[in-house]
Amino acid sequence: MFRARDLLVRQRTQLINALRGQLAEYGWIVAQGTSHVARLVAVVDDPTSGLPQAARAVFAIMGSR
């Protein structure tokens, strides 16, 4: 059971870090940690964030996981 939980935590961390890294390329810097995921999702969902529509679509898919 511990291995399954550990795997899920690692996958979640990888996904959050990937999303943070991609948003940083567009100038959006968000703090590390799972407590800041809501900020990541808010940036992706905001149509005035300056993100290209194609990027927002990809980030939305990443964020839905």
Would you spell out the secondary-structure blueprint of this structure?
Blueprint: H1 2-25, H2 37-45, H3 53-64
Helix pairs in contact: 2-3
Mean pLDDT: 87
Low-confidence stretches: none
Q: Bin the strand percentage.
A: under 5%
User: Strand pairing plus helix content: what structural class?
Assistant: mainly alpha
Helix content: 55-70%
Write down the Rg. 13 Å
SSE string: HHH
Main sheet characteristics: none
Count of helix runs: 3
Separation of termini?
A: 21 Å
Given the C-alpha coordinates, what overall shape results? elongated
- When the domains are counted, the total is 1
Tally of DSSP β-strands: 0
Keywords summarizing the entry:
65 residues; mainly alpha; 3 helices; 69% helix; Putative transposase
Explain what you see.
The protein is mostly helical and 65 residues long. The protein has one domain. Helices cover 69% and strands 0% of the residues. The protein contains three helices and no strands. Helix 2 runs antiparallel to helix 3. The longest helix has 24 residues, at 2-25. It starts with a helix and ends with a helix. The model has no long low-confidence stretch (mean pLDDT 87).
